[in-house]
Predict the 3D structure of the following.
Amino acid sequence: MRILSGIQPSGALHIGNYFGMMRPAIDLQGAGEAFYFIADYHALTSLRDPVALRALSRGVAVDFLACGLDPSRATLFRQSDVPQVTELAWILNTVAPMGLLERAHSYKDKVARGLPASAGLFTYPVLMAADILIYDSDVVPVGRDQKQHVEITRDLATKMNETFGPILKLPEPRIQTATATVPGLDGQKMSKSYGNTIEIFGEEKETRKRVMSIVTDSTPVEAPKNADASAIFQLFSLVASPNESAEMRAAFEQGGRGYGDFKKQLFAALWEYFAPFRQRREELLAQPDHIDEVLAAGARRANSAADDVMGRVRQAVGLR
Ligand code: ADP
Ligand code: TRP
């Protein structure tokens, strides 16, 4: 089984990225051949600062490794180290129905949020389909917001197979329901574009400040509170043991404790949960050569897998 996922290096990683995509991907790395990449071509749709792009791409590699990606079990690489993927994206573009892309949510959402409406942003799902199809991927662990992209990938693969014969494998999305949408400080989906994130590797003071700023309703301290409706409780249950979560739920329902108190408990649990990762990250930052080696080895393995599929595709469509 081949498992594939990618993440854009368009900003600091947050705990929504961790629970929605990174942890499920890391959990799967022993279950088959895992390919995880840093989607730097995709990041160009929103980031036009070469120094920042290079630094963020490397930063994502370090953070992914610090969170538990094991390069002896998973292949970690930069998307742009396999430029063949843009060739496959072009070929997919030639069969991609306009209507299919026009129905995609992410383009409309991103333009509504102020990103420039470029052709690259519009065909973003086609490049993502190429990412998935070029490695004959079986399973794609992602957060819920990426589900439609995997469906578009299946549609494009089907279209190619109908047109040129059976050349591409249809992938399945793998979405962890418990962590599919991690709430942000305002209770909406945590996202770097909404400014409502808690970073995985943020500074202690800043992280505490962010946790203390989680939006709450005006239920008085003594009154019972609804745990399920609270981002504090939802975030706490991601990082606490089942027993600790049950205790916090009971305390919510009983009343007598204020939100500020629960936030302090959440911060302590969060800080402790990510402590071993912070330590590993410090160690990794001290070994820049190791990061380069991991990415170079990953690029070699990914190129070899991509060349296999591209050989098949070129042959089938009549190139070379
Ligand atoms: P952002 O919304 O911050 O820009 P990305 O779109 O780069 O995040 O998402 C990278 C990965 O992390 C995707 O697989 C996405 O589904 C997952 N992800 C992002 N935010 C969340 C969230 N709040 N809850 C669950 N998964 C998330
Ligand atoms: N679009 C994904 C995101 O924003 C990143 C991505 C690019 C990806 N190509 C992919 C994810 C292929 C999974 C598979 O998070």
Notes: The mean pLDDT is 96. The CA atoms of residues 6 and 37 lie 5 Å apart. The pocket of tryptophan (ligand 2) is lined by residues 4-8, 39, 42, 128, 131-132, 140, 142, 146, 149 (CB under 6 Å). The beta strands are 2-7, 33-38, 74-78, 139-141, 172-174.
